[in-house]
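Support request, please re-run this one:
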Amino acid sequence: MAEYEEQTASSKLSSFIEKNRKNIITVFVILVCLLAGYIVFAALNNKAKEKNLQALDEITYELTSKSSDLEDSEVEARIATAIEKAAPIAKKGGIAGARANMLCAELTFKQEKYDEAAAYWKAAASKSKKTYLAPIAYFNLAVCYENIGNNDLAVENYKLAANDESFVMRTHAMFSYGRVLETKGDFSAAAEVYTELNDKFAGNSWANLAKTRLISLQNEGKIE
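Re-run finished. Output below.
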């Protein structure tokens, strides 16, 4: 019986394929074309990424090569040229776009154009989510906001950097997070951050500073 049912099912499948051969072939061809298109797109995308990263390396080299003896005006000219060349890449997505924004952010920060630097760091963070670049962007974005005087956004971004366990400057970010909370007058929240920093990273230089701040806040009667 089982053998008969198997033969019947096989016959039905053969009959179905025979009746719908053209449709099946058409679907197969479409799938092959889609796969081929994806492979070509991935290859082109990877090639474009490599080209953009290479361009950024060249921009950085032109910016820094034999720069030790340059006059201030010459340095400023190089910075302006680097930003101009990196700007089109900064509009792109992915790692190349993130790196281009980071380069422009560093250069505009050097020029003390903190609003522009913040915009570049914000774009870099958006383009580098879930990568090691994201907490770097958040941290530097917070620094820009501090310089602008926007402590609310500084706190928000220091917190994002401090919460990333992979961030190599996590203890620095945690201390800065607590420090700006202090500046805002939120002493209890600052104390919580300092305590966490001291508990998790006892002996670290930033943890030691946090411990000092806790003692100061207690002595000043700002926390219990």
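The chain has a mean pLDDT of 84. The two ends are 84 Å apart (CA to CA).
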